[in-house]
Amino acid sequence: xxxxxxxxxxxxxxxISSETFAGDKFGIRVGWQYSxxxxxxxxxxxxxxxxxxxxxxKEKKIIPFLRLGGGVEYSQVGVSMSGSSDKVKFxxxxxxxxxxxxLGPVYGLLGAAPAFKVGESWxxxxxxxxxxxLFDANTFDLPIFAGIGLNILVLQIEARYYxxxxxxxxxxxxxxxxxxxxxLGLGLTI
Length: 190
Fold this sequence. Notes:
Blueprint: H1 2-17, E1 25-39, E2 42-43, E3 47-63, E4 66-80, E5 87-94, E6 97-103, E7 106-112, E8 115-123, H2 128-135, E9 140-141, E10 144-152, E11 155-163, E12 177-189
Antiparallel strand pairs: 1-2, 1-3, 1-12, 3-4, 4-5, 4-6, 5-8, 6-7, 7-10, 8-9, 10-11, 11-12
């Protein structure tokens, strides 16, 4: 976990100090995330994983109602088993890139978030190491997302839904496993 915090701090400093995401609005996002892993239309676990996300962003105004944005974000994706303490978590650093259409204080988002796995934890009571080795998680995912939000002065309240487009398991015996996440959070713009 210390490595994840250090990596996030380094990326945060780079994001703040560089002109990578040219723009006229800077902000911080934080919130609750509800995620699960899916094999086609069915879930892998009995219950979704409740976790959090944290990130920074910059936006550039193109025309009065259209902005382009990007950022750096840390999140946890996974699954938990109801009735036990078993949980599988994949820790990701993602680079969300999006278009934001604003109509008054309400806005819509559409984008993609290339995500790089920086860690994983298999809190499984029996056979956790074997399950981790069998799953052989890939290090890259490319989720797409759509969302809505509301601006109140410098505060943003938004909801986003992410669809993973790439298979998470590197094991050919476990094809088609993808992630989906729902995020509900707050943003503070400077």
